[in-house]
Design brief:
Blueprint lengths: L2 H8 L11 H14 L9 H53 L2 H21 L5 H68 L4 H9 L10 H15 L18 E10 L4 H9 L19 E8 L4 H8 L5 E8 L6 E8 L10 E8 L3 H6 L5 H9 L5 H20 L3 E15 L2 E16 L32 E3 L3 E10 L6 H7 L5 E2 L5 H9 L6 E2 L16 H6 L46 H5 L3 H23 L19 E4 L11 H4 L4 H17 L23 E4 L8 E2 L7 H30 L6 H33 L11 H23 L1
Parallel strand pairs: 11-14
Antiparallel strand pairs: 1-9, 1-10, 2-3, 2-6, 3-4, 4-5, 6-7, 7-8, 7-9, 12-13
Helix pairs in contact: 1-5, 2-5, 3-5, 3-7, 5-7, 11-12, 20-21, 21-22
């Protein structure tokens, strides 16, 4: 899809004159560079200067609109929040006045006043009394009208808030489209004119007008607060933000997803319509640093903790120091995560305690214990004795592990987290981590990155950390979404969560770990075993949206709003407008796969061509029906998921809402030996449908086919040289016992055959040659079975210790032993028959 067509199909019509004039710029390049009606001529420096001037004008236009619209939206949110507060206060005041007890008191006072007035003015005529009664009825009608109009006013506010949500969505899309447009038009300029404008324009203009770096988190937090205020009619749920639910029996599942940067704002807005943004200090104005989270992970030179977490061994630990906000925060949390296998009956736990930043070095070196610190908490009444004892044990165990296992800071992870949760209710908790970056902290290669301090001091929270050497950091290309569901036994997750995780906005990646990815990427020379997702990082995780699912998570404007387009859907150009865009080398004219019922709007073709296309399709379908009736219809070809430009993938259908342990068995399919037969069966079909390679210089990301479906897309990947892909394998005690039972069964078999051989030797004559031969055959069979039992038991034990995901079945050994046993019996039988 050409980028000019992409802008036109996704822009918000009311802002159409504020977008980058991509088509006009491209047309000028073609005309002035000799591809237009002016004929061939050389592109001069004057032409280049004029073109740069126009680019600057377009850039300033986009920046002014983006900044102005963001300020306008922020002002509208504040104004609406004030209106809601006033409306709620007015309504609460009217409710107090209409309270039954207040009404009774008011009626009592009114009645006494009426009696006094009647006694004082007994000569008042009946006409005056009737007028008083009419006035009272009118006042009652006014009270009823104000109460009825309360809900109506809130409905109007809901529509205004929905419009603001759509505006934020469209503004984020506006920013992305225009920035991409500037990048692409500079590429087109180089191809057409030969002038390399990229570095100059980026340094002199884009970096000085970084409208594309606008952080929407502040707007989203304010919008979430307003949305929650309107949704709850001015009485949002209050509670401890760190508290959990009150369920006694629950099932908790945690699943992680990758989110492409194009879908981040859309995803946040879709979630806040159901859950508010979790803010720990509502009285404080939101700052970007409030969402920053930094963790420093510990390990030794052998990466012992990394391997334990990667292979999910029982008791595997992760030790880290974490702080929230920027580096000025002096409170550091020492955390330990411990993995527990299901067969132990225990749950994986995360425990932590706080320590002052200036004491971290002494604690890590073993010069300081936390006992006195924790005892002081008991004296001040902040902790109970039981809680302090648990904290002491944790601190001592962490310190002991650091000292005995030679642990040191290895890797730092940084990200900005947006959490969605009802305060005090942990049944549904969703967190989205953006700008994820991993940075080396170790000195394994002799480079003192942190010196004698426990963390390096040459960086803060300024993403993307330009001050850090590129070799020492890994900027993760996607956001990470984590969905934690805590539902009662037998209860289904909320429908909106199911719709969200099955949409094209997210891609499930169970068992993803920031610590594991950071070590595997930043320490390749020390890592032999890598996670399954690392060889697939170059795959495009985007895929076309399913119409039904996309509709459920779409950001739509209220139908009553007087707008000309709907956010999240394509704007339909007027039939009188003719779309033209100059052709450009390297741009693909192919469209993405879209629902057929929307192709008229998507293609924007003349009615005659649309009619011809529909007739051709109907004719083809009729031919297929006729072939099907005669039994000659071709077999339908199942489309494979395309995850890269070079090779096809294997889809592993999973339920994204299941806990991560449910994937262990399906991950074994990734073992190359387990997949060998499946790949052989599909190889010929895949070769026939191999997608063409993208041409060099392709300028639009959307030109490549995207994977389809709602499942995880796994491709036929190969580990890099001298690396192995870790396949999660669960080793439970019953597996060990099963191996031992198999060993004992074969021993029993060998002893029985050995007993037969011993019996023959004891009850035959010494001169019986046939008996001696038969006894020898049975003895050989017994010895072979005993050797086979011992060998297979040892082989399987070593495979279990290595947590090998390969095949443990032996299809040849038992067959061979049975053949030897049958041969022994036949030899004895044949020799005895010949003796007769």
């Amino acid at each position: 899809m050409k980028f000019g067509q992409r802008i036109r199909s996704t822009l918000y019509a009311e802002w159409s004159d504020q977008y980058l004039d991509y088509n006009g710029l491209k047309r000028d390049l073609k005309d002035n560079a000799g591809n237009g009606p002016q004929g061939m001529r050389r592109w001069t420096e004057g032409d280049e200067a004029a073109f740069v001037k126009r680019l600057e004008k377009e850039l300033l236009k986009c920046e002014r609109f983006q900044v102005g619209k963001a300020d306008e939206l922020s002002t509208k949110i504040t104004s609406l929040e004030h209106q809601v507060t006033q409306l709620v206060q007015s309504y609460d005041q009217s409710q107090i006045q209409l309270d039954p007890q207040s009404q009774a008191q008011s009626q009592s006072q009114s009645q006494s006043q009426v009696d006094e007035d009647f006694a004082a003015e007994a000569d008042q005529d009946e006409d005056d009394e009737e007028e008083d009664e009419e006035d009272e009825r009118a006042r009652d009608d006014d009270d009823a009208m104000s109460e009825a109009s309360y809900d109506e006013k809130f409905k109007d506010l809901e529509e205004e808030v929905a419009t603001l949500v759509a505006d934020v969505h469209d503004l984020a899309l506006y920013t992305k489209l225009n920035f991409t447009g500037f990048v692409k038009i500079v590429k087109v300029s180089r191809k057409v004119t030969g002038f390399n404008l990229k570095s100059y324009f980026s340094a002199e203009y884009l970096d000085k007008h970084p409208f594309y770096k606008y952080n929407y988190d502040g707007l989203i937090v304010k919008l979430s607060r307003l949305f929650d205020l309107v949704r709850t009619r001015g009485h949002p749920i209050e509670g401890d933000s760190a508290a959990g639910g009150t369920q006694n029996a629950f099932v908790r599942s945690t699943t992680k997803y990758w989110v492409h940067e194009d879908n981040i704002v859309h995803l946040k807005l879709a979630i806040l319509k159901q859950l508010p943004v979790l803010v720990f200090n509502p009285s404080k104005e939101f700052e970007v640093k409030d969402s920053a989270i930094t963790s420093i992970y510990f390990d030794n030179e052998g990466l012992e903790l990394y391997l334990g977490r990667l292979e999910k061994t029982e008791g595997a630990e992760a030790i880290r120091l974490r702080w929230y906000g920027d580096v000025s925060n002096k409170t550091i949390f020492v955390e330990r995560k411990t993995h527990r296998e299901d067969w132990t009956g225990e749950k994986s736990v995360k425990a932590r305690f706080a320590i002052a930043e200036h004491k971290a070095n002494d604690f890590i070196a073993g010069r300081l214990t936390m006992d006195d610190e924790f005892d002081e908490l008991v004296k001040r009444g902040k902790k109970t004795v039981k809680e302090v004892d648990s904290m002491k044990q944790l601190a001592n165990e962490v310190q002991y592990a650091i000292l005995t296992r030679a642990l040191s800071p290895v890797m730092r992870s940084f990200y900005n987290r947006t959490a969605f949760q009802l305060p005090g209710d942990a049944r549904v908790r969703i967190s989205l981590d953006t700008e994820l970056t991993m940075v080396r902290e170790d000195d394994f290669d002799g480079k003192p990155r942190a010196g004698k301090n426990w963390r390096r001091t040459d960086m803060g929270i300024d993403f993307p950390f330009d001050e850090v050497d590129a070799k020492d950091k890994e900027v993760f290309p996607y956001a990470v979404l984590e969905v934690k569901l805590q539902t009662q036994l037998g209860q289904e997750p909320p429908t909106w969560v199911t719709d969200l995780v099955h949409s094209n906005l997210v891609t499930p990646v169970p068992k993803f770990s920031k610590f594991i990815h950071g070590c595997a990427t930043l320490l390749p020379e020390r890592v032999e075993l890598i996670p399954f997702w690392q060889p697939q990082m170059d795959r495009d995780i985007r895929r076309p949206a399913d119409p039904e699912t996309a509709k459920k998570v779409a950001i739509e404007r209220p139908h009553s709003a007087n707008v000309s387009s709907t956010s999240g859907t394509n704007s339909v150009p007027s039939p009188t407008q003719r779309y033209e865009e100059p052709n450009s080398e390297g741009e693909d004219d192919e469209y993405l796969v879209h629902p057929s019922h929307n192709e008229v709007k998507r293609l924007n073709l003349p009615p005659e061509l649309i009619r011809q296309a529909q007739e051709a399709r109907e004719e083809r379908e009729n031919n297929l029906k006729e072939l099907a009736a005669t039994g000659k219809a071709p077999q339908p070809v199942r489309r494979e998921s395309t995850a890269s430009q070079r090779d096809y993938g294997l889809r592993l259908d999973i339920d994204p809402l299941q806990p991560s342990r449910s994937y262990d068995k399906k991950y074994s399919l990734l073992d190359p030996r387990s997949l060998q037969k499946l790949f052989k069966a599909k190889q010929s079909d895949q070769n026939d449908r191999q997608p063409p390679l993208a041409e060099e210089g392709e300028s639009d990301d959307e030109a490549r086919p995207l994977p389809e479906g709602n499942g995880v897309e796994y491709t036929r990947v190969h580990a890099p040289a001298d690396k192995r892909i870790a396949i999660p394998v669960r080793i439970e005690p019953k597996v060990i016992f099963a191996n031992e039972r198999t060993f004992l069964k074969w021993l029993h078999f060998g002893i029985l055959i050995g007993g037969i051989a011993t019996t023959l030797l004891n009850f035959i004559e010494p001169t019986d040659r046939i008996g001696l031969i038969s006894a020898g055959m049975f003895t050989l069979t017994a010895l072979l079975s005993l050797a086979y039992a011992a060998g297979m038991y040892t082989w399987r034990v070593f495979k279990l210790r290595r947590r090998d995901a390969g095949n443990y079945h032996d299809p040849y050994g038992p067959t061979f032993l049975c053949a030897v046993l049958v041969a022994s019996v036949l030899v004895n039988l044949i020799l005895r028959l010949k003796q007769l």
